[in-house]
């Protein structure tokens, strides 16, 4: 290498390259006799100029030895594969999907013996989604994708308790996209608003869809010829907008209550409760959705001590009509008159009765004896409610187990709540309270997520040890990470605030009232919180 470098340097000052140009090296391909040697002139070869060829220069380049070059490396012939290869002409593409491949893997793992058992449930992710006829107009590709995202993912964040978590999104997707009149447009835009908010966060697109939904909702409510289907869609629109406001920021502005009251007003005006008595399954789930939020709204209103809420909302939001609250006394009994055939709906009725008993006792509607007697009866009914362990048709075993454990958490939360708000006979059973607490925190450690805040609120207050508090906070963290629900920082701060009150009074012989404690911490929020 040193000698070659010396030769190159010695010839460069003479105007000669250290080697011949690439054109002369490939002379046979350019019809130049091999006897012609490159004169190595710089910057180009004179031989190339004389034979009227383009000189390819002297730079280093990669080359591959020709087949007859003895310097060419010997390449061994590949050994034939052991398995028999098929003729490529017999190969063909398989038109399959990820679902088909997953189903094949599932079926391949089943035992070879034919065992047709009803106990075996097809995993939900291996069930083909029901095809919905979507009109190409007026929605483009981006909106169609948001509809799909809502149906697959965002619908799980709506705060629906019970079987409606599956039935309501399916009904919304099938019904809202079937027409293009204002009630249907209101549902469409509210679906898009929730989906966009869930997927991208609070941004311009989500706000625009929300505004479009409100306009279509306002146009629809002026009509006097609404059908049952249209009225149901308007109720769903109000609930979707309610969910949008709840999920907008960490601490909601409280405007969710306006949309919830709007949904309740439509239910009352259109007498939709009468349809549930005729066995309309979707309508029953829709009413349960409204009532669940209404029951928990009353709970927040009862404990949120910032003055008369009707006046506050009228001033804050410039309402031209009084706000009809869910806690209107004439509606409390009516809210209990929806189907209790499903276990989740029955639990909601028990929750409502427990809360209403407290309100009526505070309002001096019930005497102490009536109050304690009613709570004793509620405790007996709550303890004996049936919790099915078998998966329901159309749901996977994991999904049914999660629903059962969520129902169990709410059941235990109701029992603990009734025990705590009773400053009398029921307080004489500390063993019962300890057993409920143990069962509740066993479930909290076991489940991955819990989207419903009320049972978490009641049970979280009971965490008296660092271990249980850590288990509770870990569940909150898992829920935020895996479900993409609203920011739970404010909710967590509320629970921690109650823990702080407990710790501050740990050495005192007296304790702060349970209801006062809850009211004080909930009222520390500037806006009315939602525990749905």
From TrEMBL:
Keyword hit for Cytoplasm: no
Molecular-function GO term, any one: zinc ion binding
GO cellular component terms listed in the entry, alphabetical order: nucleus
Record keyword Nucleus present: yes
Species classification: Eukaryota, Fungi, Dikarya, Ascomycota, Pezizomycotina
Superkingdom: Eukaryota
Protein name as it appears in the record: Zn(2)-C6 fungal-type domain-containing protein
Subcellular locations according to the entry: Nucleus
Keyword field: Nucleus
One GO process term, biological-process aspect: positive regulation of transcription by RNA polymerase II
């Amino acid at each position: 290498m040193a000698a070659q470098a010396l030769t190159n340097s010695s010839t460069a000052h003479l105007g000669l390259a250290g080697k011949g140009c690439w054109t002369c090296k490939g002379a046979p391909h350019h019809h130049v006799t091999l006897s012609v040697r490159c004169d190595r002139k710089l910057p180009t070869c004179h031989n190339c100029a004389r034979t009227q060829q383009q000189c390819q220069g002297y730079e280093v380049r990669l080359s591959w030895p020709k087949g007859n070059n003895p310097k060419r490396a010997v390449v061994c012939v590949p050994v034939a594969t052991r398995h028999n290869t098929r003729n490529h002409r017999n190969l063909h593409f398989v038109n399959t999907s990820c679902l088909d491949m997953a189903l094949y893997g599932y079926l391949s793992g089943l035992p070879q013996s034919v065992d047709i058992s009803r106990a075996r449930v097809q995993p939900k992710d291996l069930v083909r989604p029901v095809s919905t006829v979507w009109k190409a107009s007026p929605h483009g590709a981006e909106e169609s994708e948001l509809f799909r995202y809502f149906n697959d993912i965002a619908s799980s964040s709506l705060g629906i308790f019970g079987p409606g978590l599956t039935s309501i999104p399916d009904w919304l997707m099938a019904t809202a996209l079937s027409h293009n009149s204002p009630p249907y447009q209101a549902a469409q835009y509210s679906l898009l608003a929730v989906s966009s908010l869930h997927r991208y966060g609070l941004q311009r697109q989500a706000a625009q869809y929300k505004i479009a939904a409100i306009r279509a909702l306002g146009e629809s409510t002026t009509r006097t010829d609404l059908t049952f289907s249209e009225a149901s869609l308007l109720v769903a629109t109000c609930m979707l907008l309610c969910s949008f406001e709840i999920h907008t920021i960490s601490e909601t502005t409280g405007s969710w209550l306006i949309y919830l009251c709007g949904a309740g007003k439509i239910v009352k005006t259109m007498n939709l409760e009468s349809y549930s008595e005729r066995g309309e399954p979707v309508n029953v789930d829709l009413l349960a959705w409204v009532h669940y939020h209404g029951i928990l709204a009353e709970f927040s209103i009862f404990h949120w001590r910032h003055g008369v809420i009707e006046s506050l909302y009228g001033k804050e939001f410039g309402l031209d009509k009084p706000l009809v609250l869910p806690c209107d006394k004439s509606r409390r009994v009516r809210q209990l008159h929806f189907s209790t055939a499903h276990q989740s709906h029955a639990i909601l009725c028990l929750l409502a009765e427990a809360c209403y008993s407290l309100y009526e006792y505070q309002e001096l509607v019930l005497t102490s004896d009536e109050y304690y007697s009613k709570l004793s009866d509620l405790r007996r009914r709550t303890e004996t409610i049936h919790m099915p362990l078998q998966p329901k048709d159309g749901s996977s075993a994991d999904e049914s187990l999660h629903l059962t454990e969520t129902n169990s958490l709410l059941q235990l939360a109701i029992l603990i709540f009734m025990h705590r708000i009773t400053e009398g006979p029921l307080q004489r059973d500390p063993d019962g309270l300890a057993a409920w607490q143990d069962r509740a925190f066993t479930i909290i450690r076991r489940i991955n997520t819990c989207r419903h805040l009320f049972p978490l609120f009641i049970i979280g207050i009971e965490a008296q040890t660092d271990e249980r508090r850590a288990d509770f906070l870990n569940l909150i963290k898992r829920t935020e990470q895996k479900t993409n629900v609203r920011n739970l920082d404010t909710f967590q701060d509320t629970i921690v605030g109650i823990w702080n009150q407990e710790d501050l009074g740990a050495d005192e012989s007296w304790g702060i009232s349970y209801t006062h404690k809850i009211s004080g911490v909930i009222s520390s929020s500037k806006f009315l919180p939602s525990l749905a």
